[in-house]
């Protein structure tokens, strides 16, 4: 396989093609940075949700469970649990009919926990649209480079001899194919990982929903114990 001097190809390209290469290089570096960041983040979140879910399963009551989760405020599970716990404390201070209190409290908490789960999923999704943008824009950038390279190669036909014209055509086609390849090298990984992370987000949402249901079950048990104590 012949040696290819990519730097020389870049330096010999027209200014427009060089700009296309720089933009595609920025897209590629940013996409891979997001990919490695998200791979590590999702692995960490999956482990923490599983660990804290076990904590709720083994907890004797709501207060002990929250005390175990409280020392890690940076965890996604802590933020979900805190949202439910704070709402539960506020509802406990309201004057509600004793017979209707469990129903009202649990219904409100379902909405609060659901909203917090959606908020956390939205935060986790935040950098991913850039992958979708690159997946769609990079092939168009490559196509633009292709069209420009061909256009540039045919410009000198009128004033040059046959051998010189072939040289210009060859250089222009090289520019065109180079940007096409670069665009695909950006778009293909961006498309694959964008869809992969969407699936991981779905799994993360289901895990957080299960965690919130476990937390809601502890609150339900706490309400039953409170009613039994009153009676």
**How many helical stretches?**
7
> What is the percentage of strand-forming residues?
under 5%
Please state the CA-atom Rg, rounded to the nearest Å: 29 Å
Quaternary organisation: single chain
- Note the run of SSEs as H and E: HHHHHHH
Number of domains in the coordinates? Answer: 1
Shape: rod-shaped
Structure class: mainly alpha
What are the main properties of this structure?
single chain, 231 residues, mainly alpha, 7 helices, 85% helix
Please characterize this protein's 3D structure.
This protein is mainly alpha-helical and 231 residues long. It has one domain (6-230). Helix content is 85%, strand content 0%. Helix 2 (15-58) runs parallel beside helix 7 (162-230) and helix 4 runs parallel beside helix 7 (162-230).
Report a brief summary of the structure.
The protein has helices at about 5-10, 15-60, 60-70, 75-90, 100-125, 130-155, 160-230. The protein has about 230 residues and is mainly α.
Secondary-structure blueprint of this entry?
Layout: H1 6-12, H2 15-58, H3 62-69, H4 76-92, H5 101-125, H6 129-154, H7 162-230
Helix pairs in contact: 2-3, 2-6, 2-7, 4-5, 4-7, 5-7, 6-7
